[in-house]
Amino acid sequence: MIRFSDIPSDKFYGRLLRWMLMLMPKRMAVPIMQGPAKGLRWIVGSQTHGMWLGSYEASKQELLRKLKLDGCTVLDIGANVGFYSMLLSRLVGPSGRVLSFEPLPRNVYFLNRHIILNRINNIEVYEAAVSDFNGRISFDASGDPSMGHLAENGTLKVSAMRLDSLTELDSSARLVKIDVEGAEESVLRGGQKFFKTQRPVILLATHGQYATEACRELLKSYGYSFEPLDRNAVEEDCGEWVCHPLIDTDANLLIGLK
User: Fold this and answer.
1) Confidence label for 252 from pLDDT (cuts 50, 70 and 90)
2) Is 252 helix (H, G, I), strand (E, B) or coil?
3) What is the CA 237 to chain-centroid distance, rounded?
4) Three-class secondary structure of residue 141 per DSSP
5) Which stretch of DSSP H or E encloses residue 43?
6) Nearest Cα to 150, choosing from 135, 158, 82?
7) Which of 76-80, 134-138, 143-147, 204-208 shows the lowest mean pLDDT across its residues?
8) Torsion angle of C-alpha atoms 188, 227, 103, 137, degrees rounded to 10
9) pLDDT digits (tens, 9 = 90+) for 145-171
10) Which residue from 131, 154, 153 is spatially nearest to 141, judged by alpha carbons?
11) Can you say how many angstroms the Cα of residue 146 is from the centroid of all Cα atoms in its chain?
């Protein structure tokens, strides 16, 4: 996979490439260039260029490609504008489904636009944050829309929901991707019954050492392992984890994760 972000910005060709990207109309829809989401159409200004260039989080994309997800239900918690939701919709196939959770209205708009643009019918969008309670919660949307997060001083009020309150979840749930900018422990606490009974594989992004240790201990109590997504990563510096159940594991799904 060509990693465009590795092209040096201090070289002429690197500066030229970035200048050309800046000139692209933000409303323009282009096909994703490479990776397992190749060919899906993407709105240029919705998020970072690395997404439609196909090089965004390449190692996570490749890991997902290895999983046997056909016909499964998967959860994309912190779906942003839909890059992983669309990728997962392709991997689960027409008989599977993707439940996408995103609280920021601006991101939900682009998520729905991408679904319509690609004529996808196996993604269900929940305009809500996933947490450890049901209700309303403050959200800080003042910065980069990819880094919006739950915050007591947030000026935006959004809906919050617990995974354990979702009646739409069934025994076919096999994978959960969580990237929620610091609220990951609350997501796990609100899904105690779900994680202990459904036993999905979890792709977890943690933000800070405290969050990492809190999630590690909680998942250990749920009967999960906690391993770096990148086998070569130093644990102290790692923020991307693969967590799989130690019992009742679907061995076919975990091919490529061990």
Assistant:
1) very low
2) coil
3) 20
4) coil
5) strand 41-43
6) 158
7) 143-147
8) 40
9) 777 777 778 788 999 999 999 977 777
10) 154
11) 11
d(Cα 78, Cα 67) in Å, to the nearest integer? 20
- pLDDT of res. 8: 63
> 């260029």: which residue's tokens?
49
The label of the residue with tokens 């899906």 reads 40
Helices (H), the chain: 12-23, 49-53, 58-66, 83-92, 105-117, 184-189, 192-198, 209-222
Question: The tokens of 192 are what?
Answer: 């105690």
Separation in Å, CA 175 to CA 13, 17, 99, 114, 239: 40, 36, 11, 22, 18
Single out the residue of 130, 124, 177 nearest to residue 149, CA to CA.
130
> DSSP 3-state assignment of 72?
coil
